[in-house]
Amino acid sequence: MESTQASPRITRDSWGKLEVEGLGTFKDAKLxxxxxxxxxxxxxxxxxxxxxxPADVEELVEHGAEVVILSKGRNGLLGIRQETKDLLAAxxxxxxxxxxxxxxxxxxxxxxxxxxxxxxHSTC
Length: 124
Fold this sequence. Notes:
This protein has helices at residues 54-62, 82-90, 100-110; strands spanning 10-14, 17-20, 24-26, 28-32, 35-38, 67-71, 94-98, 116-121. By secondary structure, it is α/β, with parallel strands linked by helices.
């Protein structure tokens, strides 16, 4: 289900709040080319440790992301499982792991021109 649309930009952010162009306000966000939604950790049982799981990124891949940005949180407290990085690498998807502010900046820079997806954690 690949999209040819640009990824929606994050227009404002603060602790616990992300405003996404055309989608609204979320605590944490899953974003991909042409759309996005709230990232609810309970769907996959994600916790800070061991962190972002392969199931968390599947939706980004399904929507055609060729670059995936994973936010570790504002203070870098959210982990990323090695299996998640391995899954993306096996599919030829470039991965950037950054703290939230850097992740938002990188995502917004790539959004207009590349098929970018992101998991953005707005706290910790």
